[in-house]
Amino acid sequence: MDIVGIKLSETLQGRGCPVCRAMEKFEEDEIATILYEHVTDPGVRTKFRESMGLCTRHAWKTLEVALGNPLLGPLGVSIIYEDVLGVYLRGEREKAECFLCELVREKERTLVEALADRLDELLPEYSSSPAILCRRHYDMLVEKLKDRPDLIKKLEEVQTKKLRELDARLKAFIDTYDYRSTRKPTEEETRSLEEAVEFLRSRPVVISAERKNRRGRGWHLGLK
Ligand SMILES: [Zn+2]
Ligand SMILES: [Zn+2]
Q1: pTM of the model
Q2: More confident residue, 2 or 110
Q3: Distance 121 CA to ligand 2 centre (A)
Q4: Which domain holds residue 221?
């Protein structure tokens, strides 16, 4: 298997949606790279200025990454936001979308495509792992596989099995709250709540990928 396939196979081993999890990792790595290497990079600075400091989600995520990492700290992020504040004071306003949202959206697209291209090989691994593709990424994957009805059918069987198992675990979790219950929920049962939310609504990183759809294509034209 190629390097992309090996990476995907690793992602498939964990819990939750492999696409969402890989997007989250990508997002954090991108933010860390900006803070480590590109604080004074004129290109990056322009991108921050044009979006008035990224979108709300990515602005707070950037702060979180900076302040949560003792090797980074508040200096770099202060320099960036002082620059954006200065530009605002000179009368500039948003001209472009948050570039991290664009990068995340692109990453989502390539991840789903890569998974679709290698699904013949990767389906057995997905089947035996605790991972569950979220509803959004499952639908995107099925869309990419539309010329492969045989593979869609196999994927659907695997996915349904996973979701039935998740539903049973969530029910068992609820049952442990019954006053007649004599046992505490297992770790797997406790985790089922978050896994159900993750399946239905994806991880928060997906907000960044969804934004453009909500705003439509007029984003670059409608402002300023
Ligand atoms: Zn997902
Ligand atoms: Zn963003």
Answers
A1: 0.90
A2: 110
A3: 33
A4: 1-224
Q: In this structure, which ligand is nearest to the CA of 22? A: 1
CA distance linking residue 103 with residue 170, whole number of Å: 35
Whole-number Å distance, alpha carbon 208 to ligand 2 midpoint, is: 5
CA of 100 to the centre of ligand 2 (A): 5
Strand partners, 16: 131
Question: Per residue in 22-59, pLDDT tens?
Answer: 999 999 999 999 999 998 899 999 999 999 999 999 99
Compute the distance between CA of residue 165 and CA of residue 45 in angstroms, rounded to an integer: 48
Nearest Cα neighbor of 12 from 150, 141, 132 is 132
Instruction: Provide the domain count of the chain.
Output: 1
Distance 75 CA to ligand 1 centre (A): 33
Q: Answer yes or no: are the C-beta atoms of 36 and 77 closer than 8 Å.
A: no
Nearest bound ligand to CA 23? 1
Contact, 109 vs 130, CB < 8 A?
no
What ligand has the least distance to the C-alpha of 61? Answer: 2
- Give the Å distance between the CA of 140 and the centre of ligand 1: 10
- Average pLDDT score over the chain: 92
Partners of 131 in the β-ladder: 16
User: What is d(CA 123, CA 116) in angstroms, rounded to the nearest whole number?
Assistant: 10
Angle made by CA atoms 19, 205, 143, in degrees to the nearest 5: 45
Of 7, 221, 209, which Cα lies nearest the Cα of 105? 209
